[in-house]
Amino acid sequence: MDKPSSGVAWLALRHDQPGNPSQRLRQLGLGQIPLTHDAFHELQPWRSAAHLEELLMASGVLPAVDKYICSFQRWMPGHLADITDPEPTKMIRLFATWRVLPRLRARAGRSHITPSIRRFAAEQIKHATAFLGWLGERNTTLDSCGQIDVDAWWAENSEHGRNCLRAFLNWAMQSRHCRRSLSIPAMKATRRAALSEDERLDALGRLLTDQDAPKNLRVAGVIVLLYAQPLTRIVRLTVDDVVHDGEAVLLRLGEPASPIPEPAASLLLDYIADRDHMNTATNQASPWLFPGRRSGQPFRPDHLSALLNEIGVPVAAARGAAIRQQLLEMPAPVVADALGYHNKTTTRLLSETGGTWSRYAAGDHARSPAGWAPRRTGDS
To answer: b/e per residue, 58-70, with b = 16+ CB within 10 A?
Structure first.
């Protein structure tokens, strides 16, 4: 550690404090705590246990497991303990074991789990539990539940609640825990309005000039406003994704890498030279462009979203404005390749924005976005 005093202070926390590091390490050394993830998931307080667990994973002492899967497995026993009826407890345990956890592990194997995915998994469990309790109040069980019960629950709950329950009902029908003839209403898609182009440029100008705002938030906000990137992708960027090509600075989001115009390029390079959370054992030599507080982990996208909203960058609306502007100025296939979007997504968004690039051939990259720069850069 560049500044070992913080590590010494961490190890020297009062011995009477629950879960202090010295006590935990001593218990591990004596074999009183098995060196397994399951053992760590039972320890309290869970935050200190999770921090130590992640340090041990980062150093290779424990096998690497997605932190959000660990978080879900740590949360589940407490939720099950709060269910008083044994039959719903059994059903929720089966649902978590055979539907929710396998989906989380499959997602972790394909890419990575975000806080919103972890949160939605817990919401599925909570709404399934609430639904079973609601059936009990109607003197009905899951296996005798009929269409009239599903329709009544749908009418009483929000769209979010309906979407959370959908997976449980599908699983229950497929596994024959309820009637397979139940009909589940289709999901409704909703979209938030994008910023206007003037609002996008105003927000971009503030981030490029506001010396009081934290530099990591300014950089993240600029990436959203210029390149329409979701925060779940932004926090997975590494310093190696920032490419120097002669005097140009590029950001690798897709192919080709996207040029970063000034003064955004200088802001990004200044930030890389002095990133946050780099002075402890948690993130020594971290490759993440936005290192987090936890060992080996990037910044949490949900936390980053809340902080950006506080400084006037509503992420969803800003992304919508940025992708709309790029599609009005360049062909959808070029935008898709350079920004890491699926071509079908940019084609659909192009039709919604009223763009006129319908005759562009997907294989023709003569109009590469190598000269990208925000409009009215001088005004920003």
So the answer is: beeebeeebbbbb
